[in-house]
Design goal:
The structure is a single chain. This protein is mainly beta. The protein has a single domain, classed as Neuraminidase, CATH 2.120.10.30. Helix content is 11%, strand content 39%. It has 5 helices and 25 strands. The strands form 7 sheets. The protein has a 4-stranded antiparallel sheet, with no helix packed on it. Strand 24 and strand 25 form a beta hairpin.
Length: 349
């Protein structure tokens, strides 16, 4: 009863969960152009899911697993997540196909849909992030606008059925193994959580300035976090207007919904006001934007240390996956169609 009254009060007064404000980008998150100013990367078609196998960096590109020297594997469905098993075999989640390990789909993993991330823990078990049990992977923006909380995290060991470690999550979108459990990025909740082996949930970060995606360990003992799209007061407002959302989804092309976006600036149909974007014909770097590029390094306590940005006028937007290996930070710009190779130490003290 008290919770319902508090929710009603928040909606009437525009505070708490009903506030339209978003966290500012300051401190270690202060905007810069490090992503945009980086050297040319590897052209790729909407890359995602970076992994290292045998010293070689791989990523998903449509129905193919790619490396810098060309295709490595191909599936019948769009690849949404990758992981390397303890024995070196590649685990591939393909929409409509399930999860193949070493080219074979175990019966327990057949038919899984909307798999957003895969990771192995210290025992060799495979953790599986399922963004939505209602919508396929391609309909993630509909999942967002319908305020779905149907995601789940599974843990699978060979010869057994997947075990549900957490459910009713808002699009879990990244996994990071830690000694004390598995860290999960929960996109629609704008937070990072930790699950232990019993499924107990602990919140690590909340109220992030964007929607989180891939996680990866950093050389300093912390983590790298990709945020695939920025939050905005416009998005927060639309989420509070159910009639408007229903009408928009029924009448407007999904490409132009007011929802998080991996890229922007390519069509005048986009739902932004031109006067706020350009001055004297020049796109303002501080303009409100539907998309951006943002990678954040966190310390072992999940406190931000540094960040790399591609702002409103940039092209390297929609960073969905990150990976540090051999002194190089790799980032998959899904919206910018590019795999980037960056200097991770530049912002470290």
């Amino acid at each position: 009863m008290m919770g319902a009254l508090r929710t009603l009060s928040d909606r009437l007064l525009g505070r708490g969960s009903a506030a339209l404000t978003v966290p500012p980008l300051d401190g270690a998150l202060k905007p810069n152009n490090r992503l945009e100013d980086a050297a040319p990367g590897i052209p790729a078609g909407a890359p995602r899911a970076l992994v290292v196998q045998g010293g070689r960096v791989l990523w998903a590109e449509g129905t193919q697993v790619m490396s810098d020297s060309g295709p490595v594997a191909e599936t019948a469905g769009m690849i949404t997540a990758l992981a390397v098993m303890p024995d070196g075999q590649l685990a591939i989640a393909a929409e409509g196909q399930g999860i193949a390990i070493g080219g074979t789909v175990p019966p327990a993993l057949a038919g899984l849909s909307c798999v957003t991330a895969l990771a192995c823990d210290a025992s060799g078990a495979l953790w599986i992030a399922v963004g939505s049990t209602v919508h396929p992977f391609a309909d993630w923006s509909r999942d967002f606008l319908e305020l779905r909380r149907s995601g789940r995290v599974l843990r699978w060991t060979p010869g057994s059925a997947p075990r549900v470690m957490a459910d009713r999550l808002g699009f879990p979108n990244g996994l990071l193994p830690r000694a004390d459990g598995m860290v999960v990025s929960e996109a629609w909740a704008k937070r990072l959580i930790r699950l232990d082996d019993s499924g107990r949930l602990t919140q690590l970060m909340e109220d992030l300035p964007g929607y989180p995606a891939g996680l990866a360990p950093s050389a300093g003992g912390g983590a790298w976090l990709a945020l695939f799209a920025p939050r905005s007061p416009l998005l927060e407002l639309v989420l509070r207007e159910p009639a408007y959302r229903r009408a928009m989804m029924a009448e407007v092309d999904p490409e132009f919904w007011i929802a998080p976006a991996l890229r922007s600036g390519y069509s005048f149909h986009e739902p932004m006001q031109g006067g706020a974007l350009k001055s004297m014909g020049i796109l303002k770097p501080w303009a409100p934007t539907r998309s951006s590029g943002l990678v954040v390094e966190l310390d072992a306590g999940f406190v931000p240390l540094q960040s790399l940005h591609s702002r409103a006028g940039g092209q390297r937007h929609g960073i969905t996956s990150v990976l540090e290996t051999g002194g190089v930070l790799w980032a998959a710009s899904t919206g910018g169609n590019e795999v980037l190779r960056l200097d991770p130490a530049r912002g470290r003290g």
